[in-house]
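User: Predict structure, ligand glutamine.
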Amino acid sequence: MLLLLRDISHSLYTVRISQPFMLATMTINHLIAYGMQVLQQAGVDTPRLDAELLLANVLGVGRAYLYAHPEEEVDAGVLQEWQRHLERRARREPLAYILGKAEFCGLEFTVTPDVLVPRPETEVLVEAAVARQPATIADIGTGSGCIAITVAVNLPQAQVWATDISEAALRVARENVERHGVAGRVRLLQGDLLQPLTGMRLDVIVSNPPYVAESERLSLQPEVREWEPSQALFAGDDPLQFHRRLAAEAHFHLREGGWLMVEVGLGQAEAVASLLEEAGYQQVRILNDLAGIGRVVEGRYR
Ligand code: SAM
Ligand code: GLN
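Assistant: Predicted complex:
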């Protein structure tokens, strides 16, 4: 069925997202207004921003272009593709999976549903790692590779090892390693936590492990709960199980004076700091993210 929408601001609420739509003259402004309403109704947090980013992506332009050309007409092909993107977003698929990319530390990464979408708060972990100027560093549970790769880009002399238990995630990381030209210095290894580092001693070990308790599943946004890999998020009944294992085992793979740095969830920082202290780490410190939440715990092994 083809719908003709003359007055976008009044008729849109009656349009179901599953119906194709068409306007005699659809301008960039019309589409953004329409998309915003659809996404708002679907419960998306940032409907305008997302409608704009999806449209900019389909048009192959930057977001600023939309503001500079509000009256530009959009052809039917663009309209159809944008409609498909909008439907996916209205089903709460993360924007990054629809766009196939996400920004992290100012770099662009390929992302697919096989990897966690890089989070801005994880940039704290990268800053902390880079500040230590390691010559050798491992990123445990690398996902898209965002931490390992930004460290490698920021420290051109560093040798980096990036591990994950998920082969599918490592395929995405491989693509990103090549995309950022660090394939010679970032080695990807598959295996359980620190097992791939057998026989190695490094300056720094970083990890953003799964730390969401199974009991929190229902409180997560649909984007996270229904679309991101469970293996990247959930730590079963003991949300600190990975931190516990890292605290107990990382020192076998650190040189003397090396640092362990881990990301933690809301309210976990103190408990993880205690885990590191009990395991013999010194100078244990909690670093806050931009929201003032304790986000990274670091400690020095002797
Ligand atoms: N480092 C990426 C980031 O910060 O965006 C991804 C972090 S995600 C929270 C956790 C990652 O750990 C996932 O890629 C998941 O596949 C991996 N993982 C889960 N269990 C693991 C295990 N036992 N050993 C190694 N990696 C594991
Ligand atoms: N920060 C993620 C979230 O928003 C969780 C990532 C993790 O478990 N390491 O749920």
